[in-house]
């Protein structure tokens, strides 16, 4: 029999209590997050349970866009200044191959079946379609000037690319690889994210300071979300990364040099909250259990862990130099 704080607890009872706690709301499952450090030319490997960097891996020049295969075995990384997409084995964290991305790859999106990678080539005004398994370019799709944001519908049929200088969202048929619609949005669109049901795509405009909500069927803007943070000038509020919860109820928008993440009700489009994070927040990623959201904060060289239940920041963690992108392994 042990005595703790004046309360007697039998060892067997203690063990049973601990097991019960693990079933009914114990600590979150440990996942691994991967952070691309744009100026550090590295990836920080982060344990999301301990909230610590467990490894730093050297990669190509100016790593930005980052994603992971659906089975979690390979990381795909835009090494922008090397004009390539690096393929990294997550078991060894070694670069095992590369994909023919075209010049200056910045952002990309993996198809729902994991077979194709759609890459925005900023310098050539193209979207490059890559066969991941065979490492071949399937198509190069002309789009607007300075393509960046890439989003794909849950069914994989519609791809959306945003062109920064043209200020448009280009809707692309993934079967024909042709642009079928163009939707004008606000200045310098940086990111495109579909809602889980595929009915809408949310496009952030960095200079315009808005997020345009586009109806996927009608291909028209149905709402524009604006932001206002007390004490901050409007020009400092620059929406970039967008992440929508798996249940489709809340959207999270990284507001760049405003150093906040906005939480938006996807039904009413009302801003529910502004979460203070690090300096120059770029992008966001959920853990698979949707309990934690991670932001990359470029100017403060750290990431922030956010409790998705309370929408409160939990902890910040120093990573490499100018963290840009983040992805969390599915397992």
Provide tags for this entry.
mainly beta, single chain, four-stranded antiparallel β-sheet, PQQ_b_propeller, Host-pathogen_enzymatic-act, Methylamine Dehydrogenase, Chain H, 331 residues, globular
Describe this structure in words.
This protein is mainly β. The protein has a single domain, classed as Methylamine Dehydrogenase, Chain H, CATH 2.130.10.10. 4% of the residues lie in helices and 53% in strands. It is built from one helix and 30 strands. The chain has one helix spanning 11-23; strands at 2-4, 7-9, 32-37, 42-47, 52-58, 63-68, 74-79, 84-89, 94-99, 105-110, 116-121, 126-131, 136-142, 147-152, 158-163, 168-173, 178-184, 189-194, 200-205, 210-215, 220-226, 242-244, 250-254, 260-265, 271-276, 281-286, 292-297, 302-307, 312-318, 323-328. It has a four-stranded antiparallel sheet, with no helix packed on it. A four-stranded antiparallel sheet has the order 6-7-8-9, with no helix packed on it. It has a four-stranded antiparallel sheet with strand order 10-11-12-13, with no helix packed on it. The protein is globular. Mean pLDDT is 92; it is low at 1-27.
